[in-house]
Amino acid sequence: MNLSPKTLAAYAAILVCGIVAPFLFPNYTFQLAMLWIMILFALTWDTMGGQMGYNSLGNIFFFGAGMYICAVVQIAWAGYDVAEYTAHFGAVKIEVTYAQYYGGLMVGLILAALGCVLFAIVFGHIVFGLRGPYFAIGTLGVALAAGELVGTWDYVGGGGGITVPFYPGEPDARSLLYYFLCFPLAIATFSFLKWLYSTRFGLAINAIRDDEEKAEGMGIHTLRYKTIAWASSAFFLGISGGIFGNMVGFVEPLEVAFPTVTFGIFMVVMALLGGKGTLWGPVLGATVFHIIKETTWTYMLGWQWVALGALIIINIVFFQQGILGWAQEKWPERFGIKVEGDDSGREAG
User: Fold this and answer.
1) Which pLDDT score is estimated for 308?
2) In the predicted model, what is the mean pLDDT of residues 93-98?
3) Can you tell me the distance from the alpha carbon of 159 to that of 257, in angstroms, rounded to the nearest whole number?
4) Whether residue 345 has pLDDT greater than 70
5) What are the residue ranges of helices labelled H in 128-161?
6) What does the pLDDT read at residue 16?
């Protein structure tokens, strides 16, 4: 893949900014790490909703499942019994060494990713029989049901949640660790999807979005492509869930692991805001949305949901194509888009 000098310079600038950001703004390391998670959310949702036309409202399920898988593995890796640790009749305090913590975290993240891929394959064969709004409602049901079911499962703490083994080092080192897990994960997600969309796979899922019946008639194995697309999203979401669980230090089913009404909706809003069906649109939308969200949460406490609701309404009513789509319509030549009949239109005017 040949990249222009401007593109290479832009990628280099993003990498440099990503590396130095937590050192320039040490008091905002958590918020910066959350920015990369938000970008990952938007990118993975757009794989289904934008590139393939399957608007999933249940992607947050993989985020929560990865969080729980990672936490359980970390506890077991440290040599503790998970059921005893999460029992309500007493508390077991986990003290881990650096080797135990890093080993448990890495193994936990790997198993979280693989476990979520398996979930995507299993649930994909169930929900991909649905189309349109029925698919969206079906996936939403999976996420809501997961939160309620985990809340009744005593092995993982039930509704009381489960505390993740705490990082044994200094708080500043802890913040930097999670930032430098979120940052390369978002970069890896973007790079993987950029490559994936440039292959025959990208053409196939776009064909499914445009007309699934015709795509099947052309010999495209639609179920296979849909399953791979969802599994790819689940892989990265599972890892992000494991990292986020360690960032907050506590995993609770409804508000932390499976927050359908917050993170689950944010995924959709960010992709729509930036421009779904594009590679950079979700990145742009996530960045703008996160900045607005953090600003309103800081300076408009009590009105933050009103502000975000107004943003959603403006986006849906006036900018359905998203920021990037609007920019492409206004300045097509800057995006390498040739408009047929443009010269004749100017002469006629």
Assistant:
1) 84
2) 82
3) 11
4) no
5) 132-150
6) 94
Q: How far apart are CA 304 and CA 274, in angstroms?
A: 20
Question: From CA 10, how far away is CA 4, in angstroms rounded?
Answer: 10
The domain segmentation of the chain, as residue ranges, is 30-260
Between CA 67 and CA 251 the distance in angstroms is 7
Q: What is the pLDDT of residue 33?
A: 96
Q: How far apart are CA 94 and CA 82, in angstroms?
A: 11
The letter for the amino acid at 90 is: G
**Do 237 and 58 form a contact (C-beta atoms < 8 A)?**
no
pLDDT greater at residue 155 or residue 340: 155
| Residue of 283, 278, 235 whose CA lies nearest to 113 | 235
Q: What is the pLDDT of residue 335?
A: 67
The CA–CA distances, whole Å, from 128 to 65, 92, 277 equal: 20, 42, 20
Is the whole model's pTM more than 0.70, yes or no?
yes
> Does residue 306 surpass a pLDDT of 90?
no
pLDDT at 346 (0 to 100): 41
**Per this entry, what is the length of the chain?**
349
Q: Scan for tokens 């040490």, then name that residue.
A: 26
Gyration radius from the chain CA atoms: 21
**20, HSE (Cβ side, Cα atoms, 13 Å):** 7
pLDDT band at 39 (very low <50, low <70, confident <90, very high): very high
DSSP conformation class of 55: -
270, 300, 262, 268: which is closest to 287 by C-alpha? 270
Query: Could you say which DSSP state residue 242 is in?
Result: H
Using CA atoms, how far apart are residues 159 and 98, in angstroms rounded to an integer?
30
Residue 264's Cβ-side half-sphere holds a number of Cα atoms within 13 Å equal to: 26
Alpha-carbon span 54 to 129, nearest angstrom: 12
